[in-house]
Amino acid sequence: MRLSPRLLKLAAKVPDYAVVADIGTDHALLPIYLVSTGKCPRAVAVELKEGPYQAARTAIESFNMSGSVDLRRGDGLKPVVPGEVDAVVIAGMGAEQMIRILEESPQVRASVPWFVLQPMEDAPKLRGYLVTHGFRLADEELVRDGDEIYEIICAAPGQEHIEDELLLEVGPRNVERRDPLLPELIERRIQRYRRILIQVEQGRTQRAVEAMREIQERIRRLDALARAVTRHD
What we know:
By secondary structure, the chain is of the alpha/beta class. It has 2 domains: 5-162, Rossmann fold (3-Layer(aba) Sandwich), CATH 3.40.50; 182-230. It is 47% helix and 20% strand. It has helices at residues 5-13, 29-36, 50-62, 95-104, 106-111, 123-131, 166-170, 172-176, 182-200, 206-230; strands at residues 20-23, 43-47, 69-73, 87-93, 115-119, 135-145, 148-157. It has a 7-stranded mixed beta sheet, with helices on both faces. It is elongated, with a radius of gyration of 19 Å.
């Protein structure tokens, strides 16, 4: 089985020998890979939508994995029993949806020691939620897949002290280890803020002026961070 670079990196972040749940499993490629390679003894694959659910069923059966990959129909973590799994993967959806999933299953959330999260958008918002709801950002990594750079966040129960909220923008662990893709991620963030700035500049209200100053300051600080992480000590 060949996985995309994004899925391979997600698989690498799952602890060895963990019983894993893949939420929003789509075609169940990740849990099939984790079990078939021996990294995980068994997996729970959860899918809500009918089409992907049937596709996952077909894939699991074709790989003869029905005994070790348990496919369940349902929303988020609701089909998972508290204490049943050692790790949870939630990938390929927006931060808002991920936060909703975590919020709606507090008992399951509290029982899981390791989360592998890959938001498609609003990663800073997801980090902010995690650090204010009893999680530490245990590991982070960026991965290029096609033209996109994806942010992978591994969260574990604990406390995370963030001295500068700018770190939530790009990930404190990414900054600490100077992820090779971090300068490009920062540049993409800056370009997005510049596009927003052009829109805000059309306003004439006091709030628009204040927003412009905030965005300009955010751009300045991100630019300084980019120079810092690319500096050779």
